[in-house]
Amino acid sequence: MDRKWSFRARISLVLTVLLGLAGCYEPEPKPRIRGEQPSLVLPPAQIPAKQRLMGRSVQGRPIMVEIVGQGTDTALIMGCIHGDERASAALVSELAERLRSNPQEIQGRRVVLLPVANPDGLVAGTRGNVRGIDLNRNFEATNRVDNDRNGLRPLTEPESRVLQDIIQEYAPNRIVTIHQPLNCIDYDGPGQAIAARMAQACDLAVKKLGARPGSLGSYTGEALSIPTITLELPAEASKMSGVGLWQKYGKALMAAVVYPEYAK
């Protein structure tokens, strides 16, 4: 009897091993402590960047965002709301590459990157969209002025509606929008401290320009009280490469991303 049982036991063991190697056998799961929940927070290096189609322009071009990192602190960094300010798109793209390669720099943070807010204008080389509307005057701000340039009412353009959707969905704690050619750092709403920190990291000075009628800063900064900083690059920035732009202004952007910490 002992010999027979020993033989069956050996056969059972061999079959178990073979089934396990073939992927047909799963061991019983490790018992979990009652009430214990599996962790849903991934280490920074394992959090993949995610691209999303948020909408389309008048001519049907995609308006894409890239989300890097995760956390309760969110920064929105955007470029090219004016299509003829090309350096902004290149600089946001360089920031995206930096964050993808160095996710540890934004541990506990989420960054929403929008390189091109006005794709039709970028292709055409025009400030406004293809209908001639200045998207940075098309928001539902208390100081807006309705006309042919700003739109006869707020949010007439699909591009500005996409921007509003992004802001409502991601609820950023701060916004940085990149422009040309005024060569300074402007801010709207409670953004002075962030603007000052950015100025410490580059050669641009803080200069309060005032909220323009119907602008993004008027809407997000003044109406919604989201710190909104405008990084105004010089006109010659359009002649610089993405790498050159990053070398000159990258630390200023990182200072805004990791605020109130200091840029590395």
Name the features:
single chain; alpha/beta; disordered N terminus; about 260 residues; about 20% strand; 7 helices; seven-stranded mixed sheet; Aminopeptidase
Structure description:
- The protein is α/β, with parallel strands linked by helices and 264 residues long.
- It has a single domain (44-257), classed as Zn peptidases (Aminopeptidase).
- The protein is 33% helix and 18% strand.
- Helix 2 crosses helix 7 (242-257) and helix 5 packs across helix 7.
Mind telling me the CATH superfamily name?
Zn peptidases
CATH architecture: 3-Layer(aba) Sandwich
Percentage of residues in strands: 15-25%
Q: Helix and strand string, N-terminal first?
A: HEEEHEHHEEHHEH
How many DSSP helices? Answer: 7
Number of domains: 1
Class from helix and strand fractions: alpha/beta
Q: Quote the average pLDDT.
A: 87
CATH topology: Aminopeptidase
Strand count, sense and closure of the main sheet?
A: 7 strands, mixed
Q: Evaluate the radius of gyration.
A: 26 Å
- Count of individual beta strands: 7
Topology:
Blueprint: H1 2-21, E1 50-56, E2 62-69, E3 73-79, H2 87-101, E4 109-114, H3 119-124, H4 158-170, E5 174-179, E6 182-188, H5 192-199, H6 216-223, E7 228-234, H7 242-257
Parallel strand pairs: 3-4, 3-5, 5-7
Antiparallel strand pairs: 1-2, 2-4, 6-7
Offer a concise description of the structure.
The chain has 264 residues and is an alpha/beta fold. Helices cover 33% and strands 18% of the residues.
